[in-house]
Write a structure and sequence with these properties.
alpha+beta; single chain; 8-stranded mixed beta sheet; 19% strand; 35% helix; Glutaredoxin; 5 helices; 205 residues
């Protein structure tokens, strides 16, 4: 009996040790985030139920607004306290980028967004950067560090993030002048991808 009890105790100790190691690894490495997700993109005027990504052939309707559907309207405050509505920009092409100050890929793609915004803002292109639940001073410092001039909006309760079913950062959604979702891109957007999307949306680059 003592041998059997000793074996059980040893087994329990081993299981407990393995659980502890697994938990420590999760804390150290973190849960899967936007930095480790595969980039997915869609460009179409059809419903995403039948639209596949030209990049990896993945249907993304369950994790993003439907391609070809009207983009849900929202109202958020910018860093100056002004209310900004998506519908304010009807008639323009809007890039909604969901981001965080701690997100490495977000930091990498922002300069390209700023460059294209400066180049095309007089041709109806606007970028709206939506930040979830970070202090205003952190968002302002990020803006100043990278020299961003397009509006950065604060989503303190995450209502717009939930509305758009955002699962990781960065996530970008292109809305055409009619308010229709045309592109969903999860993960880092390279300068080449950004150019291709804008060309498909009618810009001569």
């Amino acid at each position: 009996m003592r041998s059997g009890s000793s074996n059980r105790i040893a087994l329990y100790l081993l299981v407990g040790f393995l659980i502890g190691v697994a938990f420590a690894l999760v804390l150290f490495l973190g849960f899967p985030s936007a930095e480790s997700e595969t980039s997915m993109s869609v460009l179409s005027t059809a419903s995403s139920e039948t639209t596949e990504s030209p990049v990896i052939g993945t249907v993304v309707s369950k994790i993003a607004p439907e391609i070809g559907a009207q983009a849900p309207d929202f109202a958020l405050r910018d860093l100056g306290g002004n209310e900004i509505r998506l519908s304010d920009y009807r008639g323009r092409t809007v890039l909604l980028t969901f981001w965080a100050t701690w997100c490495g890929p977000c930091r990498l793609e922002m300069p390209a967004f700023e460059s294209r915004y400066q180049e095309l803002k007089d041709d109806g292109f606007i970028v709206l950067g939506l930040n979830f639940d970070e202090p205003v001073e952190d968002v302002r410092a990020f803006r100043d560090e990278l020299g961003l001039s397009f509006p950065l909006l604060l989503d303190p309760g995450g209502s717009v993030q939930r509305l758009y079913r955002i699962r990781g950062y960065p996530s970008s959604i292109f809305v055409d002048p009619q308010g229709v979702v045309r592109v969903v891109h999860i993960g880092l957007i390279t300068e080449g991808q950004l150019r291709d999307y804008l060309v498909e949306l009618g810009y001569n680059l």
